[in-house]
Design a protein that fits this description.
Layout (H helix, E strand, L loop, with lengths): L16 H9 L13 H42 L4 E5 L2 H14 L9 E3 L4 H10 L7 H7 L5 E5 L6 H12 L3 E6 L4 H8 L5 E4 L5 H22 L13
Parallel strand pairs: 1-2, 1-3, 3-4, 4-5
Helix pairs in contact: 2-8, 3-8, 5-6
């Protein structure tokens, strides 16, 4: 028999496998005698996670402030010369890739810049995956669309995605600026950077997928804003004065 805290409400019956999975991941949601959430533990969990991401963002700023500025300047130079941005990633990173492209293409302020997420065309992604293999789903698109002076930006939490590695290799062969965002220790993207095949790599020092993606979101929004600033288009740039 379970403890009183683990006993479901009378008449509730046996929990489904899905409910058991949620109970395992979030035990504080089922800690009360009636299965209701313990508000204090929820508040504690929320505050703890919020504090974790604040510390992680501060750490990323300490590690990469200068390198973000350098990357943004390089991207601004490519855009100014007519370059385009191509973004890509898998799973949650695919959603982030789409957000990056949208931030550059349709900004709330500043200059719209040409950007395309390689994950948005479902027909193309599934055709390439089925006919050629998922490992080349981004590389094939870069081979068809990319040209010298463009930018390839890929996101991964593990840094181990084979299709990102091949995409960056293809982008490098085409003279594109390459920018990678990863987590953990950077995985295979770190190896690419060490071989000189990845121009800019930002590794979020965390083993939590949630915190990695949250920090990456902050990083690429800062990268977008500094790129705008470098192009002189950001309204947050200092006002120009004579003299």
């Amino acid at each position: 028999m379970g403890t009183p805290e683990e006993t479901p409400p009378e008449g509730a019956g046996a929990p489904s496998p899905e409910a058991e999975g949620i109970r395992h991941l979030y035990p504080f949601l089922y800690s009360g005698p009636t299965g209701r959430a313990d508000d204090r533990r929820i508040i504690w969990s929320t505050e703890t996670k919020a504090a974790e991401i604040v510390r992680l963002r501060e750490r990323v700023a300490e590690l990469y402030a200068d390198r973000i500025a350098g990357c943004a300047e390089a991207m601004a130079a490519r855009f100014a010369a007519g370059g385009r941005l191509f973004t890509f990633g898998n799973g949650g990173s695919s959603t982030d890739a789409q957000e990056v492209a949208t931030a550059f293409l349709a900004p709330r302020h500043g200059t719209p810049l040409p950007a395309l997420s390689l994950t948005t065309d479902v027909a193309l992604v599934t055709a390439l995956s089925n006919d050629a293999g998922f490992e080349v789903v981004f590389a094939r698109q870069i081979a068809a669309l990319g040209r010298p002076g463009d930018i390839a930006l890929g996101l991964s939490t593990s840094g181990g995605s084979a299709n990102l590695v091949q995409a960056f290799e293809e982008a490098g062969r085409r003279g594109m600026l390459t920018v990678g965002l990863a987590g953990y220790q950077g995985g295979r993207l770190t190896e690419l950077a060490e071989r000189g095949l990845l121009d800019h790599l930002f590794v979020i020092p965390s083993s939590s997928v949630h915190r990695i993606q949250e920090a990456q979101t902050t990083l690429y929004h800062v990268l977008w804003e500094v790129t705008q600033y470098a192009m002189g288009a950001s309204p947050r740039a200092p006002a120009r004065t004579g003299g």
